[in-house]
Amino acid sequence: MHKSLLDKVWELHTVREFEDGRTQLFIGLHLIHEVTSQQAFGMLKTRGMKVAFPQRTFGTIDHIVPTKNLSRPLADGMAESAASSLEQSCRENGIKLFGMESAQRGIVHVIGPELGLTQPGMTIACGDSHTSTHGAFGSLGFGIGTTQVGHVLATQCLMMKKPNQMRAIFNGKMQSGVHAKDLILSLIRKIGVSGAAGHSIEYSGEQVEKFSMEQRMTICNMSIEAGARIGYVNPDSTTYEYVRGREFAPSEGKFEEAIEFWDSIRSEPGAAHDKTAEINSSKIEPMVTWGINPGQSIGISEELPYPEHMEENERRGAQKAYEHMKLAPGKKINGLKVGRVFIGSCTNSRLSDLVEASKIIEGKKIAKNTSAIVVPGSQQVKAHAEQMGLHKIFTNAGFEWRNSGCSMCLGLNPDKLSGDEICASTSNRNFIGRQGSPLGRTLLMSPAMAAAAAISGEVCDVRDML
Length: 466
What we know:
By secondary structure, the chain is of the alpha/beta class. It contains 15 helices and 19 strands. The model has no long low-confidence stretch (mean pLDDT about 95).
């Protein structure tokens, strides 16, 4: 039987199999942050246990960290407690922490790849659902809960059932002004937010092969929004050149040996998949979400859909979305006024994302009644962007240029919406209350589209600005 990458990596990390269908899986890399680790370390202390493999665990502070004032103690007492607790736990257990003062700190799913911690063929766990991001490298990334974080700290293993397998094929060349974010939103729209439930997604096709690693990370990041547990791309020369020379990557003397192994885990031609979804990339236009889940999206030229034209199980959600978003079927999303713009998050805060946004913004000013912030995904991304002068492009246009962090993606920090503001956001979720206000209205889109919205003060087609 021909094997997929999932089959091969799963087998390589299997410790034992159980009669109920679950596998005890060894975890090669464990990434932790301040939100889900506090209770997990407490569980270990209660039992008098230490971290089993501290050399396989790396921590950062990203979710609660403010992006303006980093002075300690943090103004938010709960945030300071979470940060201090992680710092102490890492000291006590010999864990490498990229703390508040570190030039390597950043969003956990940004720093893992940029430091070379993330490599093909790994099993990677983190107490954050978007750990699927790391699958862009041909690894298996599992988002886990607090209890499971404790299990990995104590045993370096997870108990789980192997998911079914789905293949998403993106063929055809993207139009100018269309980005990886548009492709993944298009897939989620097509299959629905539970379309890949119980599955992994293997992304393939000529467009995926042409993608940079940062574009691949964007599509893998939002596998979760399609209901999948894992999303991955087979490793290739693009992967290897990205990893080469990074701090925690194999040394140059061992790199060719590593490539030989990484090549061996690629999916074999003819490997079976339980589901297949095909997308013609050339037909995709810039996408915008209009509702309260990432599957409720449309192309910029389309009209808002009528609930009566939807499947029965989607109608109620659409009606609730229209009530919350204060929108109506048959109208255009193009021209909708926005009050806030957020460029950041583990989906779209890497250097290439900021470059794409800056191309739209350069030489222009943001709209009068719009405020906008740029939050780089890591301190290294911030430093590189500043070396390129991107921060001046943004600030000259009226954006705020911030330190790294999760920021407005989830509102566990000072960066939040107020009232029923409409926010053009490059993040991954548009659930009610996600950005800190129960009345806030989130529109997901690419960095280029968010930049265009900031300039025009409304949702618009970025292709008109190219």
